[in-house]
Amino acid sequence: MIKTIIHNNVQLAIIIKHNYKKDGIEFFTPNEYSQQLAYMSHKKGKKIDAHIHNKVTRDVHLTQEVLVIRKGKLRVDFYSQDKIYLESTILEKGDVILLASGGHGFEALEDLEMIEIKQGPYLGEEDKTRFEHISNNKLEIK
């Protein structure tokens, strides 16, 4: 199952649920994203050509991050670029999310292990603008 979070025709996130399956390769992101997200399924014996990646200059203007949930449950709260709360969703073990734009906050609902992948280097406070979380009584989980 694939879920997309869209606000004002802007994609905020792509979620690949742990039970998603498809033969072959599927890219979920457009070429203009600075992070590319794909699902790949190959039969035993499939060979992928050995390769190196060429040095290519890319301009990155917005950090996009991918989270891979290895254990537990994580609530993701989505916000517009103007810091307005939109909705929340729950991720569980095996789920993957690309946070493409807008704002987001998190709460670990169970003991959590996850992997984060994003462009580097991390620049600390220069990298993000923090703001107040939505209160629990205003959550809308979809």
UniProtKB/TrEMBL annotation:
<dbReference type="InterPro" id="IPR011051">
    <property type="entry name" value="RmlC_Cupin_sf"/>
</dbReference>
<protein>
    <recommendedName>
        <fullName>Cupin</fullName>
    </recommendedName>
</protein>
